[in-house]
Amino acid sequence: MKKSFVFVLAAFLVFTSCTAKNKDTHLAVDKNGKTVVERYGNLQILKNTLCDQNGNPVQLRGMSSHGLQWYGKYANNNVIRWLREDWNCQIFRTALYLGEGGFINNGSLKFLVFESIESCIKNGMYVLVDWHVLSDKDPMLYKNRAVEFFSEIAEKYGSYPNIIYEICNEPNGRNVTWDNNIKPYAEEVIATIRKYDPDNIIIVGTPNWSQDVDVAAKNPITEQKNIMYTLHFYAGSHGDKLRRKASKALKAGIPLFVTEWGTTKDSGDGGVFEKETLEWMEFLQKNNISWVNWSINNKGEDSGILKYNADKSGDGNWNEDDLSPSGIFVRKILRNEIDIK
User: Fold this and answer.
1) What's the rounded Cα separation, in Å, for the pair 139 and 131?
2) Pairing status of strand 256-262 against strand 227-234
3) Residue 153 and residue 181: Cα distance in Å, rounded?
4) Is 152 a catalytic residue?
5) Is position 223 annotated as part of the catalytic site?
6) Residues 334, 332: Cα–Cα separation, whole Å
7) Which strand (E) or helix (H) includes residue 284?
8) Residues 85, 118, 170, 337: which is the catalytic one?
9) Has this prediction a pTM greater than 0.70?
10) What's the rounded Cα separation, in Å, for the pair 341 and 338?
11) What pairing do the DSSP bridges indicate for beta strands 202-204 and 163-166?
12) What is the mean pLDDT of each run of 10 residues along the chain (341 residues)?
């Protein structure tokens, strides 16, 4: 009887210790006041897994801006600091659309990217610099602009461990393939970045709105180190079928990063799918896949974290009355208030 009690107690202590340790890795600032970047430093890929500077596996979690041409007012130090302090965000994604009034016709948007990067450096967070290929479909369309943009980013900020390059958000279209479009584009942009930044993580989009990670896994980029591949999902539209694709890619040996996901349907609306979201959270945690939630906006869509017209000035310091149902739910996940098994 006593032996059984001791065994159960020991098992419980091991479990609680592991759980506490796991939650500690999800802190933006730990109990000693160290930021996530101070703790993890230069990220690296080891054995198909994102790791810190000492080789320990890490899972980053955070929030994405919406398109900077529409909601760039939230890409500022006040909001980024609030996301770190109140939401427990370890990473911020700055989404630079190309079309739809984005960077191709408004080059000044790059200064909002600079502001995002510098705010993340100041706050000890990682920053995902997103070249948001979407309506333009084929990354080759603006390849020269991408080379120019990422050259500037890498030369200016590549010495900081905070920087992660997302060089192609969601390539899409029947004629946009991995072998003929996405991989050749990625190889050229990666080579450009590596002239200035030999080590920081680079994430490559995958076919079919960054869902066909299994296709990329058949012919991965092998000439460069610290390369990851993009997986996107929306919990109301994507489930087991996409998780099977992800598992197949992981088994084939390529590391994945969910640079965008939503609690809703892939339209951005349709309500919040809490059960399906938690299934994804469990899958990502089990496989040590980092993630960034879409998105910080107040336009009234279900996937936005703010209610319609909340925080018009973009100052942050939101209370629960400012948040949408998705915002309330995602904040709880980030703050470790929902147990992810």
Assistant:
1) 9
2) parallel
3) 23
4) no
5) no
6) 5
7) helix 274-286
8) 170
9) yes
10) 9
11) parallel
12) 37 35 81 98 97 98 98 98 98 98 98 98 98 98 98 98 98 98 98 98 98 98 94 98 98 98 98 98 98 98 98 96 98 97 86
Q: Are strands 49-51 and 61-65 parallel, antiparallel or unpaired?
A: unpaired
Ranges of each domain in the chain: 2-334
Overall size of the chain counted in residues? 341
Distance from C-alpha of 226 to C-alpha of 72, rounded to nearest angstrom: 29
Question: What DSSP element (H or E) covers 332?
Answer: helix 325-334
Buried residues in 149-177 as b, exposed as e (16+ CB within 10 A): bbbebbeebbebbbbbbbbbbbbbeeebb
CATH of domain 2-334: 3.20.20.80
Active-site option among 260, 276, 320, 337:
260
Locate 17 and state its tokens: 């210790």
Residue where the block lists tokens 């879409």: 294
Helices 110-122 and 143-157, packing angle to 10 deg:
30
Q: What is the DSSP string of 285-301?
A: HHTT--EEEEEE--S--
